[in-house]
Amino acid sequence: MWMPDGWAVKREEDFTSTETVQGSRDTEGASLKLCAGFCPAPCTVSREPLCPKEKSRLTHPVLMFRSTPYGDLMIAIIDYQAGNLTSVQRALAFLGRDSLITHDPAQVLAAERIIFPGVGAAGKAMSDLRRLGMDQALLASYEAGKPILGICLGTQIILERSEENETPCIGLIKGEVRRFPGNLTEGEGRALKVPHMGWNGIEFKQDHFLFRGIDADREFYFVHSYYPSPRDPATVLGQTHYGFSFASVLFSRNLVAVQFHPEKSGRPGLKILSNFCSWGGKEDA
Fold this sequence. Notes:
Blueprint (H helix, E strand, L loop, with lengths): L7 E4 L19 E5 L26 E5 L8 E4 L6 H10 L4 E4 L2 H6 L2 E4 L5 H11 L1 H10 L4 E4 L1 H4 L4 E2 L4 E2 L6 E5 L5 E2 L3 E2 L4 E6 L1 E2 L14 E6 L1 E5 L5 E6 L3 E8 L2 E4 L7 H13 L7
Parallel strand pairs: 1-3, 4-5, 4-6, 6-7, 7-19, 8-10
Antiparallel strand pairs: 2-3, 8-9, 10-16, 11-12, 13-15, 14-17, 17-18, 18-19
């Protein structure tokens, strides 16, 4: 497993000081935990300060090697000032999964898997991602085959362009993001409100590991004014109807992205997150 040069590396049983040793690429067979700063005692993954002597958030990354099961490896939740991060982390904690909310590209690159959530405007989101270097960390992680889950705004800005703020986006999947029309209607001309807000179903076009164990009639929580419009129909895993059918679940290789909020969708949403935590990042895995 790759890690940035110069990061502190310790085996947990020997982790008794803040002495830094040079990072090594010879880490095969070791799993890792990542804490937010130098700490004189073994730590678990947390956004909060881990050293009792510190009052502010710690900033120096430390890798600690330990012999733990695959499921105990670190999940990075990308922080780019786009909301709903702690709700995702709480959902993972409920499932017994450690995670780290981070705006550090090096921590994202060192993570075993990535969740890319978000609410807000595409223009501001892309500006913050580029300023932090997170766009490049996402691109590198995608090319490396690391499992990635996009949520809501994180699903939209993996496409090439968004009509919102006329924003060039990351481009992991070809296509664009469009706004729901203002005259959206359903049935016999009943007007539909924008944003699309509330519970709605998904018509799955293909089977995927992330949605195994979820009944076809389950509904998920949506809140959005823009929707994904991928260029290649083969990247559409599921569709949702709101005046018309739009792509609500996208996938490409080691990336799955959902327009709804699994962390706010009850048991079916938790099942998706649980499946993601054990997904190997393969299309047919």
